[in-house]
Automatic annotation (TrEMBL):
It comes from Pseudoflavonifractor hominis. Belongs to the EPSP synthase family. MurA subfamily. Phosphoenolpyruvate binds at residues 22-23. It is found in: Cytoplasm. This is UDP-N-acetylglucosamine 1-carboxyvinyltransferase. PANTHER family: UDP-N-ACETYLGLUCOSAMINE 1-CARBOXYVINYLTRANSFERASE, UDP-N-ACETYLGLUCOSAMINE 1-CARBOXYVINYLTRANSFERASE 2.
Amino acid sequence: MTKYVIHGGKPLFGEISISGAKNAAVAIIPATLLVDGVCRIENIPQISDVTLILNILQDLGADVRTVNRTTVDIDCSHIHNSKVPEELARKIRASYYLIGALLSRFGSAEVPPPGGCDLGGRPIDQHIKGFVSMGADVDVKGGYIHAKAKGGRLTGTTVYMDIVSVGATMNIMLAATLAEGLTVIENAAKEPHIVDLANFLNSMGADIMGAGTDVIKIRGVERLGGGMYSIIPDQIEAGTYMAAVAAAGGEVLIKNVIPKHLECITAKLVEMGVDVEERDDAVLVRRTGKLTRTNVKTLPYPGFPTDMQPQIAAVLCLAQGTSVVTEGVWDNRYRYVDEFRRMGAQIQVDGKIAVIEGVEKLTGARLRACDLRAGAAMIITALAAQGTSEISNIHHIERGYEDIVRKLSGVGADIRVVITPDEEQSEATAG
Ligand code: EPU
């Protein structure tokens, strides 16, 4: 078993550079299916979710070439297969983007239901509603979602989202890009990765307007051609390191970010007594004094991101006073709370609300990452805690954080990857 061992209680000093955004990459890579030509994608994060989605494209017949550590060339021109392999697709939530992309390109798709973190119910009814209203027949049989456009090509229409959904908004954008006529998405999600997907598609020849607002208009085009595109920096990775500095103390320059995307996180940290200084493409985060309580409610962008909820809760465990966290997106995103309690945190959860009584100190413990962001939050509590913590199930964390051990070690954290004797006798220092 591989785990992280963290000796906590050391403030963090130095610089961390942020990688490309996971939730943009896992949509833009499937979007290359729409392109007739080579797409050079830069600033790709090296995380297991990206490896999986690239493997799925290769399995479908795409030519994927690594140019350097963060750049790949993807050529999907010669693909003729619209059936996605079950084993790979079930491991990743973003495999649902293959439905929209394959439907757009071939007029049909066979994709297994998506996997991903267990955050309570994760329906895709809004995605399906969109495809059906554009003229697709969609049904589930034999463990696969089968979608087929009547007449072989989807037709543009107006799709009203009953719920603001990141995935459904991007999936319908993909489906509409090569459809006949105009598609209007109303009550669309506005996250930075939605704008990034639209920018990618437009740079390849699509006609998409309004991404980043709640009405997106997509006029279908006949074909997209190849080109070059660089993925935006990861808002949540940056926010996670900001929270780590807030909890552990110290001063860290977080580089390669778009400060505007971090404003919702910055605002909460400032309320808690953390100094955040915005630069052009960096934020300087400094925490020397005590942390103070605040309330946080997660909402779709530009609200406070649900993907930062466990990490901000980790910081609030050490803030003076009582804080209330309200989860406004997912049904069950407090599965980490029992692990925090083992470190001495005082948290009560009732449905979507967590009440946190700040404590003077947390103490190291053995922890189990239950999902990606919960795992990241456990690293934060462990960095701030007195003594040693061990975090197992780290494959969840590696799905979404590139080189987290190296990046934290670079700012003075005492964190190592340890492979326990049941697999290997040696202890490896991560790098
Ligand atoms: N929902 C429906 N029906 C749908 C789609 C969504 O009821 O058809 C509900 C969901 O159950 C949820 C809410 O709408 O309550 C929002 O879900 P959304 O569709 O926005 O989430 P998602 O697209 O499945 C993406 C990210 C998540 C992130 C959410 C919200 C990817 C691959 N995943 O999921 O990221 O929490 O948006 O911002 O982009 C993570 O990175 O850790 C992660 C879980």
